[in-house]
């Protein structure tokens, strides 16, 4: 689906035939960094605003409830920003390229360069499905002596090939169905492993 030959994919739904156009990520999305309120100020914490760290991202497609939360005062007195539903969180350091889609609005610490799609041009699930491409870009364009980190300015330069928003949504719908099946099958496998472990522990002396 994402193997691009010039401006046409190798595999395509037959109802679409327009060229895919190369765009810089910053043309079709806003790249937003995060921040951390002062941890010594108690009134900045234990509020109602979701605040994510990189450790919370990468295992699930969607996230909606962070481990720690900040207050409005904490938000106002830090570089953290409110991100809308549909934002693709993108870790920018200490493991570049872990992603998740916000199911509820929230904020992040400074370990992210989050992708806020411009709705007329970019579908959230479509760009999420390109996570591996963006990860490779981030790793090859990151900088830093202690650990690699990619800036928002650099991530915005990433060139991606895009179809129309209608085709993006069509592709996203199919990929979401597949991801849902994969997730369900993984859960079934985990349950079977737990059952096997239970049997081994209780049937063998």
Automatic annotation (TrEMBL):
InterPro entries: Restrct_endonuc_typeI_TRD, Restrct_endonuc_typeI_TRD_sf, Type-I_RS_S_subunit. The keyword Nuclease applies. It is an enzyme of class 3 (hydrolase). GO terms for biological process: DNA restriction-modification system. It comes from the Bacteria. SUPFAM superfamilies: DNA methylase specificity domain. Residues 17-193 form the Type I restriction modification DNA specificity domain. Belongs to the type-I restriction system S methylase family. This is Restriction endonuclease subunit S.
């Amino acid at each position: 689906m994402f193997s691009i030959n010039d401006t046409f994919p190798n595999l395509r739904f037959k109802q679409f035939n327009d060229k895919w156009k190369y765009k810089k990520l910053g043309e079709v999305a806003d790249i937003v960094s995060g921040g951390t309120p002062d941890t010594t100020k108690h009134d900045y914490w234990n509020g109602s605003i979701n605040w994510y760290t990189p450790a919370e991202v990468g295992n699930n497609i969607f996230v909606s409830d962070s481990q720690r939360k900040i207050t409005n005062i904490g938000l106002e007195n830090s570089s953290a920003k409110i991100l809308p539903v549909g934002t693709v969180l993108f870790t920018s350091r200490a493991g570049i390229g872990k992603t998740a889609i916000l199911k509820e609005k929230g904020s992040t610490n400074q370990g992210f360069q989050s992708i806020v799609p411009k709705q007329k041009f970019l579908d959230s699930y479509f760009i999420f499905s390109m996570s591996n491409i963006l990860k490779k870009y981030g790793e090859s364009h990151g900088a830093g002596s202690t650990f690699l980190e990619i800036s928002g300015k650099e991530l915005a330069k990433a060139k991606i090939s895009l179809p129309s928003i209608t085709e993006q949504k069509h592709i996203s719908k199919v990929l979401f169905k597949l991801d849902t099946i994969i997730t369900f099958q993984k859960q079934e496998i985990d349950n079977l492993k737990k059952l096997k472990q239970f049997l081994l522990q209780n049937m063998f002396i």
